[in-house]
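Section 3.1: Structural characterization of target chains.
Under the original work plan, the team committed to producing a structural model for every single-chain target entering the pipeline before any wet-lab resources were allocated. The record below documents one such target. The sequence was received from the expression subgroup and is listed exactly as submitted; it comprises 499 residues.
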Amino acid sequence: MRNRYLDLLRAAAIVRVIVYHLFGWPWLSILLPAMGVMFALAGSLTAASLSRRDAGQVVASRLRRLLPPLWLLGVIAVPVMLVTGWLQESDGEHPFSWAKLAFWVLPLGDPPGSDQAVDVWEPLWYLRAYVWFVLLSPVLFALWRRVGWAAVALPLLIMVALDVTGLSLPDTADAALWDFVTYGACWIAGFAHHDGRLARLKPYIAYPVTLAMGAAALWWAHNEGSWDLNDISESQALWSLAFVLVVLRWEPPMGWLARVRPLDATVTLLNARAVTVYLWHNIAIAAVWPVLTVLALDDLGDQLGAVTDLVAAFVLTLVAVLAFGWAEDLSAKRRPRLWPATTPQRAEQGDPQTAGTQGAERAAELPATAPHGRSSAAAAMTRTPANWPPTPAAEARHPAAEGARHPAAEEARHPVAPRRPEEAWRPEEAWHSEGARHPAEAGHPAAEAWHPAEAGHPGDQARHPEEARHPAEEPTRADPGLPVAGRRAEPWHRDDLRD
């Protein structure tokens, strides 16, 4: 089951990335710092995996989900760039190099490309940063468990050191380092979201800190003379972290999303094809005007302006999803589909920590319950019979009826946990005065220890062995099925309580 609030955040971030790359509006980086949100969500899911599985398995699984869609893009884009003159470029940003083509296989550095195809490779820095965060996650997660919130501050402290010292590294390493110090705090904040430490953070601490970081980010941007935080790493780091701490700490009820069917389906689609949308959206944007020109709709673009561009970009991105989204199914070991399922399993609203498959795993751990009785220790401690109100006597007396089982078989399927002495059943709380008598009054203090198998089928008279040998000593009385230690509650009827 999925946490739909996290799904909604991811979908909103993806849409914001598309709109920003289409129009370049600087204020969008303040309204929704999309990359910080996406890294934080990825950090939360990575922490969930590291809590359950071996670190090597987690890293391999994350890379397997990320890389095949990139390989598919590379198989198509690299030959096209070579045919269109990449080999002849000598002064481009990424001159052709056979060795650097390896970054299309494992993007430890930016996958290279020709200047003519800048729209293909320019957004791929995100995948390079993601790969490094995945590789570092076992160490970062161990550090988080050891030092807590100090680990969140570590990337920011490294950024301060870089600003003060002016230290720079070779291009590939320098780019990876600056992405780490810019978004590393958001990734580790995802760890805090997963283990609940963010939710437990006191409001009088969380909100003043986030306000201070947000104010510092805007002040820095003002001094730099730009409100596009994507161009200012220091402002981006502080603003993204402040935003993430607020939105991940607040998890509103999401039941309303299922009632808005088109939006619900869109959120599910964007989450199921997130990597494909990110890899191909920039190419779709670059193709907007050529496609409109070919279709003789360029005049429509002049008249409607931004609306036409946005609709065309979304449509072309959707075409790319239909054409190439199946690669994400393969990477997830699913049957390839042109269109993913848009009816997600939902997490229970009362569980803010459910994300990805965590909710399903929790549900699998819950014991199954029989139709006519509870089988847990908690059910055995309740004062009210588990099958209240009582089932009809006719139904209780015929075990062959639909769904009825022998009590011994039911006990084998749903064993009752033993009760601690201080939780023992109190007879005076359960027995009432309508003809039913306390077991001790009948001279059988061991009545509580009877096993359901001794009582026959539901509705039959439940009798102690000694009582069976001396029927004259005690009137017939039906077992009311009260929840006592060592016995599961069985169906009963008030007409059975005869003295």
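The radius of gyration is 32 Å.
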